[in-house]
Design a protein that fits this description.
The chain is built from nine helices and three strands; from the N terminus they run αβααββαααααα. A hairpin with a 2-residue loop joins strand 2 and strand 3. The longest helix has 22 residues.
Amino acid sequence: MRNTQTHDELYEELMQVATQEYGVVIENKVDKWYWRAIGKLLHVITFGNVDFMNSFFTTFGNRIGTAVPWDALSSAEKYEVLLHELEHIKQYRSAGFGNVWVGFVLVSFAYLFLPLPIGLAWCRAKIEMAGYAQTIRALVRLYGARVAISEKARIVEQFTSANYLFMWPFKSYMDKWYDSTLRKILEEEGEVFP
């Protein structure tokens, strides 16, 4: 059954949960020195292939760094970003036995180095699969199954391209993951696969 809440209602409800239960802080990357420093470092180590400052929303601990001013996004865009990034905060909290910053350190190590930092970064892929599953869920809730289906190539490319340093460059595997994740979410959300 299709969600009947407006985009504004979905976002406001999620933002309330994010701030009250998880202490989420949203900040524009250009406004904080640590985001800018990470952006410069990633620019160097990826030979300019990753535009961290302008292309990615990123979560460290309970802080979500935005690529564009948060207020410039629509409620639907905010909802999609927040649902994805909140999944990472939940991962940090779980790995840190309730402490988001302890979990952030542990998850970050696995994210960056296990088993390899580039190419076969299985831990990074698994962490991002959970986040992108929430992106798919947001697309289903906001726009329906057809839009979620149409976004498959864009999301699969996140795993197989330089965007995340070719974290899991096996396109056929990612295609199957996307299809099975979408079917599961459609079932959970009471939607029918078109």
